[in-house]
Amino acid sequence: MKNAVISRRIRRIKELLLRWFDWLTKQHYNVYILLALLVLTSCSNSQMVLPNSSGAAFELLWVINDDVYNSPAGDSLRLFIEGPVPFLPQPESQFDISRIEHRHYDRLLQTTRNILFVNIDPQRFSQAKLKFKHNLWANNQAVCYLNAPTREALAEYVSKNGDCIVQFFVTAERNRMHSYYVENINRTANDTVSKLFGANIAIPTSLNRFKRGNHFLWISNGSAVNNQNIVLYSVPYTTTDQLTTEAILARRDSVMKVNIPGEFEGSFMGTEVRHLYPETRFINHNGQWAAVTRGLWRMQNGAAMGGPFVSLTRIDRIHQCILTVEGFVYAPSRSKRNLLRQMDAMVYSLLTEDDLHKNIDKNN
Fold first, then answer.
1. Residue 22, in any domain of the structure
2. CA 50 from chain center: how many Å?
3. Which of 317, 296, 322 shows the shortest CA–CA distance to 307?
4. Rounded Cα gap, residues 117 and 77, in angstroms
5. pLDDT of residue 42
6. Does residue 163 sit in the same domain as residue 206?
7. How far is C-alpha 173 from the chain's CA centre?
8. Which stretches of the chain score pLDDT less than 50?
9. Which range of residues forms the domain containing residue 107?
10. Do 217 and 223 contact (CB within 8 A), yes or no?
């Protein structure tokens, strides 16, 4: 009798255990279905979570086979991407380049921030062409495909369009820097610029020393090693004659003579025109006319000091003035490419009061 009771209890326990395992299996099954639905939903929305890009600023991975690299087509391309940055006191290449063949390129390299693929294939391509991609395998990534049917077609195409490749990667780096400066903006500097000029500019917190003048503002990081500076100044706008290269340079020298004197009497930060005359390009900036001037500065009648500068000149129609923002660098015996390109990003971030009003109207 006792054994019979024990046997019934064991059978009952087995039944309960089987029901419990069956319930668990169904629960897990439901979880698997839910996970599958979540994956399918995320794929249908095309919202893949990308990793951050890897590598330092102005590093470029060049994917090109040796036979193309060692041909005239490769020589033509090297003139652009390995060529010197203009308006630097010493030669510095456009990028820090790492080169590999296609057979060595794998998934481990897909997150590189800047990638240039060079493809030669007469079966796939009927003509030479550039294709640009952003965030293909990683966030803040720039990828360029240079495709051609033959090496000869590639060489001819690059001779006419090689600068487009350089500008694509340089602009991508400038946009990355601008995003960083916006996230780490110096509120005091931006508020001061707003009060003096009614404008907005993305200056990082590293630039935190100020000097004010008459319609003039100088902001510096004060470094004795890698000295970076932003200068803003304005003059009344009366005639289009003020917008020529000569007028822009003459105005620059007159403003600097008053506001950035040297340590010796009569010395000031002037424009270097003896060995390399500055260049001015007229561009569209935020939908408006602008002049970008690049060149070298030197201390006139004073100490042996100098370096590169870049400036952006705009017409401020609300205040009826010409507004110029300039970035310049002083870093003796050091690389200046990245330092100047950082200033480039700050200079290009300028928004006049008219720009700010238009942005408000777009958002409303």
1. no
2. 19
3. 296
4. 12
5. 46
6. no
7. 2
8. 1-3, 5-6, 29, 31-46
9. 59-181
10. no
